[in-house]
UniProtKB/TrEMBL annotation:
Sections of the chain in a coiled coil: none
PANTHER family membership: HTH OST-TYPE DOMAIN-CONTAINING PROTEIN (PTHR35811:SF1), SLR1870 PROTEIN (PTHR35811)
Organism placement in taxonomy: Bacteria, Bacillati, Actinomycetota, Actinomycetes, Pseudonocardiales
Residue ranges occupied by any HTH OST-type domain in the UniProt entry: 18-95
Protein's organism: Amycolatopsis mongoliensis
PROSITE patterns associated with the record: HTH_OST
Stated name of the protein: OST-HTH/LOTUS domain-containing protein
């Protein structure tokens, strides 16, 4: 019988916000990939994170996907844009410190 690893327990927003290394990593990756309005494609954010920390895994924080981890921090706005029937949505992330008014990305 194989040993099944139990996933890490899901960390709360407060716990995630206290992890300054995580917050710095997420914010710097969003900043590095953002457009002039501050929005960054999640795929590009993930690529930057893995280049900077190859051992990074959202599951270590209790979230199966990076998008869930980013949303759980409550430090970012997340926008899912449909690109057509049958195609996966494109996910964009905005650091809440860059947010000027509520709503969707510019041009939507």
């Amino acid at each position: 019988m194989g040993i099944t690893e139990k996933p890490d327990p899901r960390r709360s927003a407060a716990e995630l916000k206290q992890d300054t290394g995580l917050v710095t990593l997420l914010r710097s990756a969003v900043d590095a990939t953002s457009d002039e309005d501050g929005w960054a494609p999640l795929a590009a954010v993930g690529n930057i994170i893995l280049k900077r920390r190859p051992d990074f895994d959202a599951r270590n924080y209790g979230y199966p996907k990076l998008s869930g981890l980013i949303e759980a921090t409550t430090l970012f706005q997340v926008d899912r844009c449909s690109v057509g029937a049958g195609k996966p949505a494109v996910v964009y992330v905005l650091d809440d410190r860059q947010r000027t008014e509520p709503g969707l990305r510019a041009g939507q």
